[in-house]
Structure formats: C-alpha cells, structure tokens
Amino acid sequence: MMASGWVWLCLLLAGWTSNNSMAAKITNFTIGAVLNDDRHDTLFREAITELNSDFTLLPVNATLHSASMRLDPNPIRTALKMCNYLIAQQVYAVIVSHPVKGDLSPATISYTGGFYHIPIVGISSREAAFSDKNIHVSFLRTVAPFFHQADVWAALLRHFHFWQVMVIHSADVDGYTLLNRLQTQFQSNDDDGEQREIKFELTKEFVPELEDFSKELQEISEGQSRVYLVYANAADAAVIFRDAAKLNLTGAGHIWLVTEQALDVPGVPIGALGLQQMHASNEAAHIRDSLYLLSSALREMEGSEKDITAPPQDCNSSGAVWETGRLYFEYIKKQVLNDGLTGKIAFDDNGDRLFSEYDIVNVNRPHAKTKVGQFFYSKYQNVLKLNVNDSEIVWPGGLRQKPEGFIIPTFLKVMTIVEQPFVYARRINDPSVETCNDGEVACPWFNNTAESSTDRFYCCRGYCIDLLKELAKKNNFTYSLALSPDGQFGSLSPKNGTGKKEWNGLIGELVEDRADMIVAPLTINPERAQVIEFSKPFKYQGITILEKKQPKSSTLVSFLQPFRDTLWILVMVSVHVVALVLYLLDRFSPFGRFRLANAENTEEDALNLSSAIWFAWGVLLNSGIGEGTPRSFSARVLGMVWAGFAMIIVASYTANLAAFLVLDRPKTSLSGINDPRLRNPMENFTYATVRGSAVDMYFRRQVELSNMYRTMEGNNYPTAEEAIEAVKEGKLKAFIWDSSRLEFEAAQDCDLVTAGELFGRSGYGIGLRKGSPWTDVITLSVLDFHERGFMEDLDERWIKLGSGQQCEHDEKTPATLGLKNMAGVFILVAAGIVCGVGLIFIEIMYKRHQIRRQRRMELARHVTDKWRTMVEKRKNLRAALENQRSRLKSNGKVNDSMTATRRTVGNKMAGSNIRTANNTEENLATLMPGNMMEMQSAQYHPPDGVTGLFSANRRSKLTRGTSVDMTDPLQQQPAVVCGRPGLYVDFSV
Q: Is residue 972 pLDDT above 50, yes or no?
C-alpha cells in the first residue's frame, strides 16, 4: 500500500496504446491470473480448458486463453511484470490471490488494472480498502471483506437478546468501516421482525501495533454491558486478551465475540464466539467460480454490445481509454452464480461478494474450537439465516447457561418534576436542620446553568414518589432523587449559539447520561421514544381543556327547557286542532250533544267550540272534566286518542324536567377540540398549553391542528401552574393539558371545569436510557402493580381524594331547586291572574254596553208600540172624519176645519229647512196650511244647537245632518218636526 504512489507514477509515465479498431469479430479472449504457486496455476489452466469445452458458457465461436504470473513481494516489480506478461497478451480480466506474506501485491495488481480499466477479481483479499471504488475502480472479489462479519454479529446479538454491547476496534479503515456497518445493522430489523435496536454502550478504538490496553479495559469494566465485540488483527488481539484476563474480564458473566483474525490467537478467552467464512481458504474453488462468472459476463456482453474492442497490449504509449473494460466490469457485477463451488455468488455496488456463509465457532477449551452454528443461505427464502445450537456453547467460566450480558446497577439517579398531584415539593431552607417528614423524599434542585451555587432543597411527596418507593422496594435498588434543572419535561430546542437542536428538561438528563431513570407524569410519545425507552404506562390518560366554569343561568322560561320551541308550538296547535275537530264531530254526528240539545225532552246543552277547547286543555293538563264532554262515538274515540297523547307528553315533560332542573349542571362554553372558537379563534379568546411539553409536540405533529398550534405558540406558558392560575384570573380562556392534572384541578376548585371529550389519548411511563437493563424489570413491576391493584390505590389516594375534593358533592348529588329555577312558573301564574282581572273588566264593560243597548231597544219598541197605537187612532179618526165629511158635504164646514189644522202644523215647523227628494230646500215657514207636500227620503237640517235623531218609527233626539225618512205612514200628511233643541219629536199631528 505504501508503494502505491510509485506504481501510479510508473503507469502514468509509461502510458499505453491499444488496438481499438477491429476489422472482424473478436473470438479469442485471454484471462490473466496472478496466483501464489504452481498448483493453483495448474488448476487455473485446467478450468480454462474445461470452459472451452462447454459452448453454453462462452460467446459463439469464442475461445478462452490463459496468461499467468507469480506474485512478487515488491510492488514495482509486480506492476512491471503485469505490463510485460499480462497486459502484453491483451487480457480481458485478471484473477488475483492474496500473497502468503504481505498485502501489497494484490493492491498493485488492482491499481494497474484499474488504470487500464481491466477488471480484477480477487479470490482471497478481504481488506476494506478494496471496497473503495475511488481507488480500486475495477476490483471485485469472490470472498466477503472482513467488515461483513458485522452482519453475522448483529444476527448473533439478536439471537441471544444482547441489546447493549461494548465495541473494541482498530483505528484504521477496516475498523471504522466495520463500526459503520454495525450501526446500520443494529438499527435494522432481523428476519423474525425484531424491531428492538441494539445499542453501543461504549466504543473503544486503538491504534494498530498495540502494546497496552489496560486503561481502556478498566473503563469498559465500569459499564453495565458485559458483551464485548473485538475487531483486531492477531497481534493486537493478543494484547487485548492478555490485559482483559488481568482485569478478570474473561470469566463467568462476560461474553466475547471476536473476528476471524483473532480466533486463533493464544490467550483467546475460553467461551469466546468467533466466525469463520466458509470456503474462504479454498482458492481452487474460488478460481473455478471466478472463471465461470467471467465467461458468463463475456457471453452476455458479446450478445448485447456491438462495439467490443480489444484490451490494451502494452504500457509503453498513451492512447484512448478502453471503454469495453468498463462495460465488462459492469457486466461482471450483474452476474449471479447460484450453484458455485463456494455457494451463491453475487456482488454489491462496490464489487464485494454477497451471500457469504459463515461457521459459528466456540472456543470451548484452550486451543480447541467447536462449530456450534451456521450463517447460511436459504434457497427457499433467498436470505441468509442463522442457526445456532445453544446447548453446545460453552460460555466464559465454563458455564452452559447463557449469561445475561449485563450487570444491573443497584444505585440509580432518578429525576422528577413538580406536577400536582403526582409530585408535591416542600422547600426547606437548611437541610442540616430541617428534615423530610414521613412519606417525603429529599429532592434537591441543582442549577446546572449558574456559575455560582444556587441549589435549593426540597422534600417531595405524591403519586410518583409512592410509585418510586414501591419500585425500589420490589427490585432492591437504591436511588437519589432530584428535580428537573430547567423545570421542563423535555423537548428539542436549538442550542445557544448554534442551530443544532438538543433535548432539554428531563429527557435531556437521560440523553446526556446524567440520570438513569425518570419517575414523573411523563407522557409517552414518538419523539421521546426515539431517544429514550419507556416502561409500560403506569397511568392512561388523554388531553382535555380546562376553563373557568360558566355560572348557572336559570332563565324565566327554565320550565320550558324539556321541549324545544318547535315541539311546544306543535302541542299548542294540536290542542286547538283537536278541540275544533271534536266540536265538528259532535255537531254533525246524529248522536252528538248539538242535536240532542235541539231535540225535545232533553236537558243537555250542545257542545260548543268553547266547551271543546276547555275539554282539550283539561285532558292535556290532567284536570277533572265534569261537563261538556263529547257524546258521539266518533268524538269520544278522538278524545281517547288525545288522552293517550296527553299522557305521553306529560310523562316525557316530567322526566325531562327532572333532568334539566333537578340534576342541573353548569355548562361549559367549549364543546371540545373541534369547537369553532378553538379552530378559528377571535382576538379576545386566548388558549394555550405548556411550552415544549408533550401536548405541544402533539399539536405540532397533527397536521389538522396546525392552525391551533400557530395560535397557541405565542401564548404558551412555561409551567402548568402558571397557566392554571391564568385561567382562574381570567387572563386565559382555555388551558389544554393532560386530563389527569386538569380533572384534579377541577375537583379542587369549583370555579374550574373540564370541557369536551378526551383526545390524543396516551399514557404516563417511566423513562429510562436507551438499552437500559432496567427497562424490562421496571415494565414487569408496573404490570404487577396494575394486577394487584396498587395503581388503583394510588389513584384513590392522590387523585380522587388528594387534599380533599371540594366539588365532589356538587358533582354527585342533585341540585336543590330555588326561586330562580321556577320563577317562570310563578310569573306564568301571575300573568294568568293579571289576564283574569283584565278580562273581568272587559266583561263588565261589555255587559254594561249590552245593557244600554237593550234599554234603547226596549225604548224603541215602546215608542213603536205607542206610535202604532196612535196610527190606529188616526186611522179611526180619519175614517170618522171621512164619514163626517161625507155627511156634511152640503154645508162646507169641513174645509174650514182642515185648514185650521194645517195652519197649526205649519207654524210648528216654521224656521226649519227641509231638503226634499228632489234636492231642493224649502223653509218650513212657507208650508202654509192648504199646501200638501210629500217628503219621502227627505234630509232634515235642524238649526244650530239641535241634537238628536228621529226616524219614521221611533222617538229620538235630533242629530244635525242626519238623513231620516219622514214619510208619513198615511202617505198623505207630512211628519211634524219640532225645531227646538233638546225636544223629542212626536210624529202625530
């Protein structure tokens, strides 16, 4: 490797020329070989001959030729020999094996072939450097590199359930490449779907040619993991094993996984597990498989490509790049040999072999190894499978039972945070004087940011403190408890001065290995689960909304709440519709009250509309109906149906009235997370959560809640206590937080209430470091606590009855009704009284008016009767006069008598104007005796001051401008009108 610069310099100065024009199709192909000895050279030539006899593996009419040379320890001589012996024969590819001593020759062959784009196939070189295609541009190999052992190690660790390991590797290309591949494999799933990630507890690297490793091993011994992965060459591995034995790291309870190079080193720990690649040392098989791959690639390329040119034939002159060599290299990488002598062969993008098979080897006694398993290719599943016989393994210390692979520390650094009712903190000023009470645990707060010491001392108690004490008692560990330095649960936040985000709060303490466990109301969410581990939830909860309780508002119409407005309207309409139908049915039925009332020999009154309405209301209100009931069968059927309807309505009303009034509960102003005031908030409506909390992460993660997150982001509070206090003071309309805490606060303060249904359901878990051996132990303990009811006891003690719940009675007992609940009913009664009094006055006034009208009617009848009597008298008088006139015609006395009478009438009517039917006015004074005038439909205009009304058939006061009929009933004499004010008129003459 050190002489690679000289090789490249020689190649660049020499250059090369190639015959890149072909007049005919190429049929002769030369394959070169750089092998270790004559035996392998003979095998190579025999394989060429065998391929030439099989026409199915070669291009049509093609023949393979061989060209070989020996390896030379000197890289310069190797490069020159390759130019003189191989390139001069225009080789299409070169097969190279690893030298017995040194590792420079294969690299030299790779450099030279890569410069001319001649494919180089390694059959024994396993160093990671050959995977770098920036240097070894045309190198492939039929053996897997050493760092591919990481795949088998990961499978073994998962098989034995070792989830935390120590890695010791060399500080070179091979060591770093192996470490990167280990990281990739540890984060991937195995064939059985195992998703648990394997963690590096500690990684130690060393510079090759190691002399002492005691200091690093001492640091490793202080860790928890007892699984050691060693990647080193034989010399360095011997030093590591020697120092490990001195520190007693090779005895019982320790597990060593070593690389192939270190498996045969003296001093390898008894019980160590190692790997051996199958067929790795069988160069004859690799030569044959390589030739089969090369011939198959030639055949495929010759059938697909038209412009195939011959390789370069010397290194003495410059020329064009051999593009066919590049194509040939890509065709070789695509080849898959399913039934090779060394198993299935395929290549990755770097030209490294895939599907390499390994034997799992156990060092069961000094200088003795036993095969205990295999990492093999499964044709049926087309994957590599691990098969290990656990019973045959001898573990360090001569044990037959698999060790745990870790030691569990008995002292843990535990972190918590103040969050009622889970953790209460009481400050003490001088811990040397004051001590914590029974049930309390010392929980100091250490200021990690201040330069001067500002530590404070507290005593903690609560739900989580009791849980921690029970865990310690059950699992026999001791602990120290401290509060979160920044008072936060933990979130990703930018580091000061840099854009890099780091975890703060409780999560940051675990990530930075400053704590071993978190016992607090720590919500389990995906973001946190990526960096720490959680136990099974010790309490399940969700997210809810806290707001200030709205005062109970009992309106005057509270008694109408059981029914909606539309239902009340329908009931009112139904009452009157039923009453109307009852009235009509009873009226038109031949057996109804209406017909019976008109029949003879019956005393029953007819069912009028008023009685029907009274009946309908009486049935609805369940009042006794003594009279006015329908008699016909049709009406009674309707009455029965109406009674059933009334019974259902009244029963439903009564039941709902109890729900609305007797069990009245204060209503919240918010309906839940989907309330429009939260989704589209107004400026005067503010809501928030705790900055950097799990609830904050939940809103940030949910796309549909992004608008709410942006609204809350500027209003969030640093702690839950501050936000709850803001809700109490009215500064904050709604606080969104964990349901357990908010329900506790609502139970303590009757002015607070939770709104809506729970959402974002999750749980509180105990946080531990990634790969912590305590994870499974704590999880099993939590499950046991759930089974035996310990968690329910904690709920009862700290959440349901913690500090005494003031609002429990208000939540579980019926509310007592007061005047404000039933004020509407009393107002309804008062309205009925007022309406009754008002109606009685209206009835009195109406009755008085009716009486006056009746009196006028009686007076009119009296006048009419008197007038009729006088008319009869006049008729009789006229008849007498006519008789007298007829008797006295002869003497002439009649004319004188009539003239006198008419003169008298005319004098009485003098001074009044009469408008006759022909619309002419005549003064009554002009109506002298002897002037006969018929005044039909005359309009009388009395003088000013004359009031009253008169007609042809009644006595009345005259009213000015009133039209009257003054036709004399005898149709011969005019009516007599008195023009003086206030007098009644007599129609008689």
A: no
